[in-house]
Amino acid sequence: MPLVLVFLPVALLYFAGYRVYGRVVARRLAVDPSRPTPACDKEDGCDFIPTKKGLLFAQHFSAISAAGPIVGPILAALWFGWLPAILWIALGCVFMGAAHDFAALVASVRHDARSVAQVMREHMGRPAFLMFLSFIWIALLYVIVAFTDITASEFTHAEFGGTVTTSSLLYLGLAVGLGLVLKARAASLWVVGPVAGALLLAAIWVGQWAPIELPSWAAALTGGNPRKAWDLVILGYCFVAAILPMWLLLQPRGFLGGFLLYGFLAAGLGGVLLGGFSVRTPAFLGWTSEGHGPLFPILFVTIACGACSGFHGLVCSGTTSKQLSTEKDAHLVGYGAMLAEGLVAVIALSTVMMGTTGTRPDEIFAGGIARFLEVFGIPRGFAMTFGFLALTTFIYDTLDVTTRLGRYILQELFGWSGKWGRIWATAATVIPAGYFLMALPNDAYAAVWSLFGTSNQLLAALTLTGITVWLVRTGRNPAVALYPLLFLIAVTGTSLVQHVAYGTGIIQVSAAILFVLAVAIVWMAIRAVRAARRVTAPA
């Protein structure tokens, strides 16, 4: 069967979902284009900046697009087959993920662009607020562990590891240089942008001819295990990136990453539509995957970000809500960007469906992207490096933001301020992640991926819990948040129970803590809804 015949129905479903169900969600949220947004009311030229919807869509899409919708679908297809994976990606995006992102964005805008945690604090009380922050911090640890180890696996790849390492280091150095140039106002973004893009291509080319290998003495520090050594180096990067000014690394790196993100999308869409590839892997492998567990709930929490991601709610209520110039744009930015991420997940899934060989998700992804690019005459070596670097770039984006969010949460919880507050809060986030990575064997990401996906989707469920309470307390129908909430609670609750029952060590303990926090927050939400109904009930 031609690959394009699988891709096109999903694309049509996303188009119909945006046009039809997206409008249903907008009506339930009472989106009002005439209502002033915080970006307009509080415009300060720094955090609150009204932004055109096209530019805001691109920025938001770059922020939420990470390695999750790439690695998760590939693993799910290898374990259960591509058919259940693509069904969850298609239906989950339309009815759960996109609705979650849309609702989180509008809820934040209606609460002066405050975070989801602050929305929960207003409608459910301070205890729920503190528990939600604690839950977020633990969930972020698993993001750091999983994505750090995936990056380390790329740096130690037998054939392309040194090449990707060189290109990655040049990419980060280029980002810092771009930040310095823009800060000094030596040139505008429109002038340096094309130059930076050309230098990024040069970095990929240089990587093929000057691969960097980890020194033997560095590997010796971790018992001769180079992958563990790279884990520590990448965590060091996380520490530095989380305390540096955003203009120096995060913002210019995000701009550069956009070149790779849209290049990857162009390669994927072009390859799927024009490459003439056929589906060569089984549609269904069984209801249970040996070594991984039953399809329910493992398939759903494995794909996680490709269908619904709680991390997106943090982005929606952290930066995007401060830039929305009109509530009307929330439909495109909140709902539409998640559907675009669904396309990323489908392209990643396609690399498995077309029979790309490899032993790890990053290898399969890079090999698939290389096959897409070869359709347009791109040499394999350059194409493989591009694929690996594209995935690494998505991971850098996630690691930067996640570590910084972890710092913010600890500073808010404990009142740590100033330079040393930033340093201690960052260290307190990075060190536990390092403990996880050193305690787990190679391929630590595989050991924690299920719990990472569980915590991420449970974060979405808890975000929807707060939104449901808000909608009930304001007299509106909560169905668009409530029904996805109930499904995600069933999926993630089952997964956490399995981790507690069959897990070992720190993973078992973490799952138990997450379960207790989630139950407590849901119970507080039920109490808040009951209290609201008693207030509005007729005498």
Task: Describe this protein's structure.
Helix content is 77%, strand content 1%. The protein is mainly α and 539 residues long. It has a single domain (4-53, 74-533), classed as Amino acid/polyamine transporter I, CATH 1.20.1740. A two-stranded antiparallel ribbon has the order 1-2. The model has no long low-confidence stretch (mean pLDDT 91).
Give a brief description.
Helix content is 77%, strand content 1%.
Discrete helix count: 21
In what order do the strands lie side by side in the largest sheet? 1-2
Determine the structural class based on helices, strands and strand pairing. Answer: mainly alpha
Total individual domains: 1
Question: Which stretches are poorly predicted, pLDDT < 50 over at least 5 residues?
Answer: none
Counted beta strands: 2
Which helices and strands, and how do they pair?
Layout: H1 4-28, H2 38-41, H3 53-64, H4 68-80, H5 82-110, H6 116-124, H7 126-155, H8 161-183, H9 189-209, H10 216-220, H11 226-243, H12 250-274, E1 288-289, E2 293-294, H13 295-303, H14 310-318, H15 330-353, H16 361-374, H17 380-414, H18 418-439, H19 444-473, H20 479-502, H21 505-536
Antiparallel strand pairs: 1-2
